[in-house]
Design a protein that fits this description.
CATH class of the largest domain: Mainly Beta
Number of domains: 2
InterPro entries: Man6P_Isoase-1 (IPR001250), Mannose-6-P_Isomerase (IPR016305), Pmannose_isomerase-type1_CS (IPR018050), PMI_typeI_cat (IPR046457), PMI_typeI_hel (IPR046458), RmlC-like_jellyroll (IPR014710), RmlC_Cupin_sf (IPR011051)
CATH superfamily of the largest domain: Jelly Rolls
CATH architecture of the largest domain: Sandwich
Number of strands: 12
Strand content: 5-15%
Enzyme class: isomerase
Keywords: Isomerase, Metal-binding, Zinc
Pathway: Nucleotide-sugar biosynthesis; GDP-alpha-D-mannose biosynthesis; alpha-D-mannose 1-phosphate from D-fructose 6-phosphate: step 1/2
Strand order of the largest sheet: 2-5-7
GO biological process, one term: carbohydrate metabolic process
Largest sheet: 3 strands, antiparallel
Length: 303
């Protein structure tokens, strides 16, 4: 009988573990890397203005941008994006007013704008879809805007002046400011219907002015003549148009001032702004821009 195998040698005793190094108290753990600020893009529901001069139905870019089911007989003239009280924008998801959200989130505007304007945007972004000539607009300066707002806040919704920047998406025609004194005198000489609306007294004062004249007297004369022209009664305007139609039917185009009339008036119900085109408008083409300072007069029209 064989002897049993010798037992295996004993395993070596493990060495005592080194004492864990105590953490250094003078070094703070590295902070986590900064996370990028999350910016949410929220959709707005913007106000639509149904002015008579707007394009109708789905022919209007305004109606299409507003994502509405347009009424084919209704004009869709302007799309407003901003905080104006006559047409404030709201958020599409919860209906909150844009102005209320900006008041709670002033960082969205930046400190300088937020400090001055609070929860209001300092501009009103509009998209216009124009079918015919707009009404003439008078833009006050800041001082006059404050007076008008204080006197008639229901009409003048805020006390700000109205400088404008217009960007032409398609070809667009703009009449801005007044003609020169010599051009005005030429109109009075050759278009007696205008003289009848302005009045003989103011027409005479205009005819006596010189191109180099200036100062408060000239301003007063122009203001008086313009006010009489713009406030003439409907009957007076209709009578003047009828006289103009009759005269144009018997006179050659060479008699017309400044070659400003490109079409012959066709009926007694014709609208002057639809029948006459001033050839020296600023005419922005696509992607061109025109700026209107305040105070200023302007009229938008299209071909």
């Amino acid at each position: 009988m064989e002897d049993p195998p010798p037992p295996p040698p004993p395993e070596p005793e493990p060495e005592p573990a080194a004492a864990a190094a105590s953490p250094r108290r003078d070094v703070e753990p590295s902070p986590p890397p900064p996370q990028p600020r999350r910016r949410l893009l929220r959709r707005l529901r913007s106000a639509v203005q149904h002015y008579e001069w707007g394009r109708r139905g789905d022919a209007s870019l305004v109606a299409r941008l507003a994502a509405q089911d347009p009424d084919p007989a209704r004009p869709y003239a302007e799309l407003w994006m901003g905080t104006h009280p006559s047409g404030p924008s709201t958020f599409l998801d919860d209906g909150e007013l844009l102005g209320d959200w900006l008041a709670r989130n002033p960082d969205a505007l930046g400190p300088a704008v937020a400090a001055r304007w609070g929860g209001d945007l300092p501009f009103l972004f509009k998209v216009l879809s124009v079918a015919k000539a707009l009404s003439i607009q008078a833009h006050p300066d800041k001082k006059l805007a404050e007076v008008l707002h204080a006197l008639r806040p229901s009409t003048y919704k805020d006390d700000n002046h109205k400088p404008e920047m217009a960007i032409a998406i398609t070809e667009f025609r703009v009449l801005c400011g007044f003609a020169s004194i010599e051009e005005l005198k030429d109109i009075l000489r050759t278009v007696p219907e205008v003289e009848g609306l302005v009045g003989h007294e103011d027409a005479g004062k205009l005819m006596s002015m010189k191109e180099y004249d200036g100062g408060s007297e000239v301003r007063s004369i122009l203001q008086s003549a313009f006010a009489k022209l713009m406030t003439a009664s409907k009957d007076m305007v209709s009578e003047a148009i009828s006289k103009l139609i009759s005269r144009l039917n018997i006179e050659s185009k060479e008699m017309l001032p400044m070659d400003c009339c490109s079409n012959t008036v066709r009926s007694g119900s014709a609208i002057v702004s639809n029948e006459f085109r001033v050839t020296d408008f600023p005419s922005p083409n696509e992607n061109e821009l025109i700026f209107f300072s305040s105070p200023q007069l302007e009229l938008y029209t299209v071909d």
